[in-house]
Amino acid sequence: MLALSGNWTQGQHPARFNSVEPELARRHLAQLTTDGAALGDWDSMLMGFLLQCHDYCRAQKIVFATRNMPHGIEQLLAVATAVAARPADAQQTKSWLAFLSPGTLVRDLWGDLQESLAFTGEVTVALARLVRGKANTRFTDFRNFCYQAGPEAFAIISLTSVLVGMILAYLGAVQLKQFGAEIFVANLVVIGTLREMGVLMTAVVMAGRTGAAYAAQLGTMQTNEEIDAITTMGISPVEFLVLPRMLALIIIMPLLTIYANLLGIVGGGIVAGGMGISPIQYFQQGESALDFSHVAVGLIKAVVFATLIAVAGCRAGINSGRSSAAVGQAATNAVVTAIVYLIVADAAINILFQQLGI
Amino acid sequence: MNADTPTPYIEIRDVTMAYGSNVIQRDLNFTIHQGDIFVIMGGSGCGKSTLLKHMLGLIPPGSGDILYEGTSFFQSSAAEQGAMRQGWGITYQSGGLFSAMTLAENITLPLELYTSYTPAEITDIVAYKLALVGLAGYQSYYPSEISGGMQKRAALARAIALDPKILFFDEPSAGLDPISSRLLDELIVQIKESMGATVVMVTHELPSIFAIATNSVYLDNITRTMIAYGNPADLRDHSPQPVVRQFLTRSAAASIEDQP
After folding, report:
1. pLDDT digits (tens, 9 = 90+) for A214-253
2. How does pLDDT run across A174-222, given as a tens digit for each residue?
3. How confident is the model at residue A88 (pLDDT cuts 50, 70, 90)?
4. A91 CB-near residues (< 8 Å, 6+ apart)
């Protein structure tokens, strides 16, 4: 018999089951009766203790009984033990350092890549159906998407492009000054911005703004069973939801890139002015470096990057799980994969154009 | 089963449901007849909603097949699946209304896709469907602007937009007060009777089950298979399975663990 006494309430720190268990094990009981005659106040702590006694007795095939317990305790115990505890699974707990294992890394990347390829395939099929006029694409929201991706992004694009133009100019000026060739800062800024920095910075900002927004929108629709509803209506979610978003981004990105290029060149001019190059000199020199091919390279990249951002964002959203945590995960996933794609694609395009001599 | 067994309308054949290696239900075999109000019931977490997702073709089952009028859904081509789905109306547990569209646009969408009505005719039909579920005049509201009960009814209005042959409901009255829940039940019966549809419903609301169901299947959490099939009132009084009787009489399970 186990006699319980005193107050079992918060702050009293009565005995824990662990400290009683060795004693129980030593005695090889056939029956364990807990006696509550001397009990004072009690709360859930006592119930926790009794439940452990009950489970221990069941595991050891000991008869468990209670005596002189307040009425409430017996009732609560009956409720708590009505459904048998689920046998403990060998739960796979992930180690904190699991992400370092090369196996997991490769598997994750490979899984992402496979998913993306499959998704790109679906998008291509949907595009083909759209061209043939067979797709169920909802263009009602198209203007909204364009507005969200374009005009609403002006402020942040202005800031980043001017600053990146200035950074490019500083970087070049310091080096070129050593050769007395400061005036060529204009060439550096114009070519660097048009071919590379203008479009890349715009793409990074859009990945964070629009790519993540797409993932969150579609992820929430997944949670809300809207995507199920679309599917069972016989509509392809890719045609209905992904295409308008993707086309909006593909139309807006080149326009934003042109805007970013202009501001980047102006930003470079500000720095050049500070180094004693007059704006007229700067723009004349810049114009001499200006070539249509540089502009075209930037715009081609803009279209490619827009596609990649939309694919990364929409894929993450459509394949999202159905919980708030999963939607957050989808948004993160969208931005991370988009940026990886951007950098890889940028490198590939640069190598290609280098080889082609453009 | 009845002696005058009608032709099987929907047939669940040897279906096993599993998430990865974790089997939820196995060996499910039952048929749903035309005109039935069929209830899939069982305790929480027994896989009712997952079974419905299998029936809707959203997730292929671990194994087994689901046949509609003798045709397997999962072995049909995408075009045939689309054709089958045109005959279905579905309301989802969380409504599944398109949150970016107004109620009118939600109902207009299937009509635009699959019918040849003119826009003016569609406007009239939308008004009629909304009136059927007691939401006349709510055309321009967004789902987030109306209450949960109204969302359920709006979802029903969208589900019946195309006068479907089969109506699927996932927990239609969950989260509704008893009166709204009863009104929704009556609405389902009226719509079903007037359109001659078959209803498949996932629920564990006993009043709904007894009020409207004509046939049912009980999925058991512990043995992980179906342990009862038949009219719910019969099952309540005559089922050999104590768990089923307890479920249907809402009696506290004295000792669930003692079940075989």
Report:
1. 999 999 999 989 999 999 988 889 999 999 999 999 999 9
2. 899 899 888 999 999 999 999 999 999 999 999 999 999 999 999 999 9
3. low
4. none
One-character DSSP codes across B166-218: EEEEESTTTT--HHHHHHHHHHHHHHHHHHT-EEEEE---HHHHHHH-SEEEE
Q: Which of A302, A292, A307, A319 is nearest to A227 (CA)?
A: A319
Place of tokens 């005659």: A37
* Chain B environment of A218 (Cβ under 8 Å): none
Specify the range with the lowest mean pLDDT, choosing from A135-139, A175-179, B228-232.
Answer: A135-139
Within 8 A of B255 by CB-CB distance, chain A residues are 82
Q: Which of A83, A224, A234 sits opposite B82 (nearest CB)?
A: A234
Distance, in Å, from the CA atom of A232 to the CA atom of A209, rounded to the nearest integer, reads 31
Instruction: Count Cβ atoms within 10 A of the Cβ of residue B208 and give its class: 0-12 exposed, 13-18 middle, 19 or more buried.
Output: buried
Question: Given this model, what pLDDT does residue A189 score?
Answer: 94
Kindly provide the ipTM of the predicted complex, given to two decimals.
0.83
Q: B1-87+166-172+197-251: which CATH topology? A: Rossmann fold (3.40.50)
**Helical spans, DSSP H, in A9-70:** 17-27, 44-60
List the domain boundaries for chain B: 1-87+166-172+197-251
Q: Where are the domains of chain A?
A: 2-80, 110-356
Q: Are strands B88-91 and B166-170 parallel, antiparallel or unpaired?
A: parallel
CA distance A341 to A308: 7
Window 145-184 of B: residues touching A by CB (8 A cutoff) are none
Q: DSSP string spanning A320-331?
A: --SSHHHHHHHH
Spatial distance between the Cα atoms of B35 and B234, rounded to a whole number of angstroms? 19
Nearest chain B residue to A144 by CA: give it: B100
- pLDDT at res. B6: 58
Q: Please, what's the largest Cα pairwise distance for chain A?
A: 101
Which of A226, A230, A323 should one mutate to test binding to chain B, selecting the residue with the greatest count of B CBs within 10 A?
A: A226
Which token pair is B246? 């307890």
Which of B210, B157, B149 is CA-nearest to residue B188? Answer: B157
Tell me the C-alpha to C-alpha distance, in Å, between residue B217 and each of B81, B137, B251: 25, 39, 19
The answer to whether the CB of A238 falls within 8 A of the CB of A122 is: yes
Please give the pLDDT value at position A250. Answer: 96
Name the DSSP letter for residue A310: H
pLDDT of residue B255 exceeding 50: no
